[in-house]
Design a protein that fits this description.
- By secondary structure, this protein is an alpha+beta fold.
- Helix content is 50%, strand content 11%.
- Helix 5 runs antiparallel to helix 9.
Length: 247
C-alpha cells in the first residue's frame, strides 16, 4: 500500500483470507471489548501462520499504524504458554476473526484465559506476600509521618491485591483500562464488584490506613480459605499492624 492508501483492517483481513498459510486471526484490545472502542482505537491483530509455512505476509511483521497493529507469529509461538505474560489478558478476552483449525484457535485462547491449578497457587502465594509487604510498609510509613511514601505503598498494594484476587480465581489480571469492564461481566467470586472497586479507589487515592486494614481483613480470610495461611503466618506479630484495630 502507498502512503496515500494505507493498509486498512478490512483490506488486510481480505488478503489473509486468501492465504492458506494463515490458520488464525485474533483481534485483541478495545475492539475485542464491547463498549470500549473510541475514535482512537486501532485494530490489534494477531496473524497466526501454520508451522513451517511460507507466506509473503511476513513482510507485514511489525506493521503499526493508527489503523492497524499487526503481530505475525507461528502457530507454535502462539500456542506457547509463556507467550509474553503481559499479553495473556489481552488474548484471554480476544475475539476470533478466523479459525482454520476447527476450533483449535479457540482452544488455545481458552487455555490462556485460565491459569492451571499449580500456576494459580504459586502466583497467588507470591502476590499475597507482595500485597502484605506493601500494606505493611504503607501502615508503617503513615505511623512514622511519611505521608507520600505511605500513599505510594498503598497504591502499590492495590496492584498486587488485584493480581492476587484474579490468581485466586485462576484468571489473568486485566489491564487497568479493562478492570471495570471485566468485573462487570465476570465478577470475582465472594466479592461485590462495586465494593471492591470503591475500596481500591480509596486506598490508591488516599492511603487511608483504616480502609487498608478493613480490606486486608477480607483478603486474609479469602487467602486462608484458599490455603495460603502459611504465607500470612510468616509475617508473625507484624500481622497485628495490618489488621483492623481490635481484631
Amino acid at each position: 500500500m502507498t502512503s496515500q492508501q494505507p493498509l486498512t483492517y478490512e483490506a488486510f483481513v481480505e488478503i489473509t483470507a486468501a492465504d492458506p498459510a494463515v490458520v488464525g486471526l485474533v483481534l485483541k484490545g478495545s475492539r475485542a471489548h464491547e463498549g470500549m472502542t473510541t475514535d482512537h482505537s486501532d485494530h490489534d491483530l494477531y496473524v497466526v501462520i501454520a508451522d513451517g509455512a511460507t507466506t509473503d505476509l511476513r513482510r507485514f511483521a511489525g506493521h503499526r499504524t493508527t489503523e492497524l497493529d499487526l503481530v505475525i507469529v507461528s502457530l507454535e509461538e502462539f500456542r506457547a504458554a509463556g507467550m509474553p505474560g503481559f499479553e495473556r489478558y489481552a488474548l484471554a478476552r480476544a475475539r476470533i476473526v478466523l479459525d482454520r483449525l476447527g476450533g483449535g484457535i479457540a482452544r488455545i485462547l481458552a487455555a490462556k484465559a485460565r491459569l492451571d491449578a499449580d500456576e494459580a497457587s504459586r502466583d497467588a502465594g507470591l502476590w499475597l506476600d507482595a500485597y502484605a509487604n506493601s500494606l505493611y510498609r504503607s501502615v508503617k510509613n503513615d505511623r512514622d509521618g511519611h505521608a507520600l511514601a505511605a500513599r505510594l505503598d498503598a497504591a502499590d498494594s492495590v496492584g498486587f491485591l488485584l493480581e492476587l484476587l484474579f490468581a485466586l480465581d485462576r484468571r489473568p489480571r486485566p489491564y487497568n483500562k479493562y478492570l471495570e469492564w471485566e468485573l462487570a461481566r465476570y465478577p470475582l467470586p465472594g466479592w461485590d464488584t462495586r465494593t471492591l472497586l470503591d475500596a481500591a479507589d480509596a486506598v490508591s487515592a488516599t492511603g487511608e490506613v483504616s480502609a487498608q486494614r478493613e480490606l486486608f481483613a477480607r483478603v486474609e480470610a479469602a487467602a486462608r480459605r484458599a490455603g495460603h495461611g502459611a504465607v500470612l503466618d510468616a509475617w508473625g506479630e507484624d500481622l497485628a499492624l495490618m489488621r483492623p484495630r481490635g481484631a
